[in-house]
Write a structure and sequence with these properties.
The protein has helices at 42-54, 69-72, 75-81, 93-96, 164-176, 193-216, 222-229, 238-254; strands at residues 5-8, 21-26, 31-35, 58-63, 86-89, 103-105, 111-114, 117-123, 132-136, 141-145, 181-184, 259-261, 264-266. The chain is an alpha/beta fold and 267 residues long. Helix 5 (164-176) runs antiparallel to helix 6 (193-216), helix 6 (193-216) packs across helix 7 (222-229) and helix 7 crosses helix 8 (238-254). The structure holds zinc ion. Zinc ion (ZN) binds at residues 66, 68, 127-128, 146.
Length: 267
């Protein structure tokens, strides 16, 4: 039975919801693997220590899904507490230097031993350029980092390395694996992955059609397009909506379906 332990990173906030999920995979008495480092909260470190003691396991490997703070910032604190542990992620040179540990670089398709079994690293960019999901084939369990959050949508910051076209391709890649459950870095476990991932994809394509019709209706700025689509949205959420519209416009531009000149967009 493959039962990763969910250990919350104890970092609730506006961007993290109830806080990040990290997952400990510990075979009895053997080496353990932690997925995502959290932010170094003392309560998280205590929970890791307790879970390791209970499983009589030692922390050997910390796999980080991507270089956003809430997933990676705890690495140096963990490295101090577990000097024998290896820290691994797909490199993102612009961001990784903020978390000074000796990162072992991971690549797409790499197979890592974990709690008596193995995990395959899958490069799944879009939310961030370095994003990895980790696939446990025997149980068809997928650790999905920030690719999917139940009941919410995922931010694609096109100005910070996000790419909507890549994100959609990554979702298609997850779907093709036919996973039985997703263990995300935020929110509850997803035990109906096909429905949730397909829903994500069709929602994005619906938004894309809305952005295209707003362009054809003569709306030329990100702000005007966002206002026409997200009519009545709380003002505090408008910047996120605009970021989303920008991600769609960049995708349409890359596909030759829109162009911009000085912030003025045209179909
Ligand atoms: Zn993220």
């Amino acid at each position: 039975m493959f039962e990763p332990r969910l250990l919350t990173a104890h970092n609730p906030g506006p961007m993290t919801g109830d806080g990040n999920n990290t997952y400990l995979i510990a075979g009895d008495g053997g080496p353990a693997v932690l997925i995502d480092a959290g932010v170094g909260e003392p309560a998280h470190l205590r929970a890791i220590a307790d879970a390791l003691a209970e499983a009589r396991a030692r922390l050997e490997l910390v796999l980080v899904t991507h270089g956003h703070r809430d997933h990676a910032a705890g690495a140096p604190v963990l490295a101090a507490a577990y000097p024998a542990a290896t820290f691994a992620k797909l490199p993102w040179p612009d961001e990784d230097h903020q978390y000074p540990v000796a990162w072992r670089p991971l690549a797409d398709g790499e197979v890592l031993s974990a709690g008596g079994g193995s995990l395959t690293a899958l490069h799944t960019p879009g939310h961030s350029p370095d994003h990895l999901a980790f696939w446990h084939e025997p149980s068809r369990t997928l650790f999905t980092g920030d690719l999917v959050v139940r009941g919410s949508s995922v931010m694609i910051h096109s100005s910070r390395g996000g790419n909507l076209a890549e994100y959609l391709a990554s979702l298609e890649r997850l779907l093709a694996l036919e996973p039985a459950r997703l263990l995300p870095a935020h929110g509850p476990v997803i035990d109906d992955p096909t429905a949730v991932i397909s829903g994500y994809i069709s929602h994005r394509l619906f938004r894309e059609r809305q952005v295209e019709s707003a362009l054809r209706a003569g709306r030329t700025t990100v702000e005007a397009i966002a206002e026409s689509i997200y009519d009545g949205l709380a003002p505090a959420l408008m910047p996120a909506a605009q970021e989303n519209v920008r991600a769609h416009l960049e995708k349409l531009k890359a596909e030759g379906r829109a162009s911009d000149a000085g912030g003025q967009w045209r179909p």
